[in-house]
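Please go through the sequence and fold tokens given here and tell me how the chain folds. Record follows.
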Amino acid sequence: MASGSEIERLIQLLAKLPGLGPRSARRAALVLLKKRDLLLEPLAAAMQDAAAATRDCEICGNLDTISPCAICRDPRRDPHLLCVVEDVADLWALERAGVFRGRYHVLGGALSALDGITPERLSVAPLLERVKHGVDEVILAMNATVEGQTTAHYLMDMLGGMKVTRLAHGVPVGGELDYLDEGTLSAAFKARRAL
């Protein structure tokens, strides 16, 4: 067991990261501390640099070291297609997949009455303003959760007569039916199409 308060603080902070519980955080802290010169000190410097340099994009809400971000500044992107995502992590996932060459809008979350997240707490007003300026299609890439679907329906209503599409839901590539939950199977069955 670590006895120094600095070590305990490191473990507690690491445990707050997604995917790391207390045991994993202790193991990670131990590796970092054992390899201070190779890992801990460069990591601390990189984190400090990232904290100082990172900005929210004034247009889409992405995180970058410049604002507007590299995606918003890229002239090869189709300005007529706008993909709306809940969070920056969703934007980054779509970018990793390389399937979208338009622009993005990060809402900053999803509607949730239980958590008190109303449209005013999300980036809905800037979205509605953006679509007035040459956007032909809005693609809603919301998470397949109750909150995500509620947000998608709300945005569809707010976007009125615009062309609004959403990502398909259903069986993932490589997925086996007997491992899928009922909600995923239901969505896949409803979204079936002719071959």
